[in-house]
């Protein structure tokens, strides 16, 4: 195969304004890829907030014609701030949005919640591709056994854990979005608080990726868990903005996946500001 025509995609974890690390990661990934330019670079969202150069990251992705991103919760927050969310604009952490141009804001408004790489994108061989060979990129995650079209926005940009639910006979029925209340009490979207609390003594939440059975998903949003590698999902948020790593994944076929990462600087002075 002519390598120059080989299709390659670089997927990048949560950047959070770490512009220098983003460029460094892209360079390192190119080296790993024998200097063959990536056909597409796709970011898992949370381009901005917390880190030092949010506006530059947004502009870089916008102006690079083959770079794309899905929408993260921080991208949504920044967009709301630019659109006049006063409570957000009063916070130091959103001061940087004043550097955004109208085109940048339009770009943020247009970010999709998911990007799908079709199963036959890499075009390898004569294999007949099934639906399962698609790759989905989403910021946070998805709830299993639900069509992409019926996933809720809150799920796609904020989920980390799933709560397994059981019927009266202790038979597993389904997974639900799991969230912690302030103070650590469990809430699951149901109004029957007593029943939920009782229930949850037995039902421990699980990382959503452990329960996902395909199609393959690449996500971010979970710096505490760092790199997550499951059978059908990879989590790439390795805490770049917390002095961890910025991680990327080079896709060169449906099964060939190569991780690449760069060490990042510590940006704690900015993180701490409310
Ligand atoms: Mn996030």
TrEMBL record:
GO terms for cellular component: cytoplasm. GO terms for molecular function: endopolyphosphatase activity; phosphatase activity. It comes from the Eukaryota. GO terms for biological process: polyphosphate catabolic process. Residues 8-222 form the Calcineurin-like phosphoesterase domain. Pfam families: Metallophos. This is Metallo-dependent phosphatase. The lineage of its organism: Eukaryota, Sar, Stramenopiles, Ochrophyta, Bacillariophyta.
């Amino acid at each position: 195969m002519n390598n120059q025509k080989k299709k390659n995609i670089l997927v990048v974890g949560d950047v959070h304004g770490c512009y220098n690390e983003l460029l460094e990661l892209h360079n390192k990934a190119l080296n790993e890829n024998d200097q063959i330019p990536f056909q597409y670079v796709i970011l898992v969202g949370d381009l901005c907030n917390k880190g030092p150069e949010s506006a530059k990251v947004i502009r870089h992705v916008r102006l690079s014609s083959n770079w794309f991103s899905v929408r993260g919760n921080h991208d949504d927050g920044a967009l709301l701030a630019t659109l006049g969310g006063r409570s957000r604009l009063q916070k130091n952490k959103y001061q940087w949005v004043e550097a955004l141009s109208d085109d940048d804001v339009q770009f943020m408004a247009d970010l999709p919640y998911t990007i799908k790489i079709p199963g036959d994108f890499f075009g390898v061989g004569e294999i007949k591709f099934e639906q399962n060979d698609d790759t989905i990129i989403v910021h946070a995650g998805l709830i299993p056994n639900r069509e992409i079209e019926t996933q809720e926005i809150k799920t796609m940009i904020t989920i980390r854990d799933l709560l397994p639910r059981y019927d009266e006979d202790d038979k597993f029925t389904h997974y639900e979005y799991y969230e912690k209340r302030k103070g650590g009490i469990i809430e699951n979207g149901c109004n029957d608080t007593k029943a939920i609390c009782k229930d949850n003594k037995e039902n421990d939440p699980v990382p959503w990726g452990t329960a996902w059975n395909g199609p393959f998903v690449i996500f971010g949003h979970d710096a505490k868990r760092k790199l997550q590698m499951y059978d059908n999902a990879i989590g790439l948020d390795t805490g770049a903005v917390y002095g961890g790593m910025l991680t990327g994944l080079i896709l060169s076929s449906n099964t060939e996946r190569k991780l690449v990462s760069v060490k990042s600087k510590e940006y704690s002075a900015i993180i701490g500001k409310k």
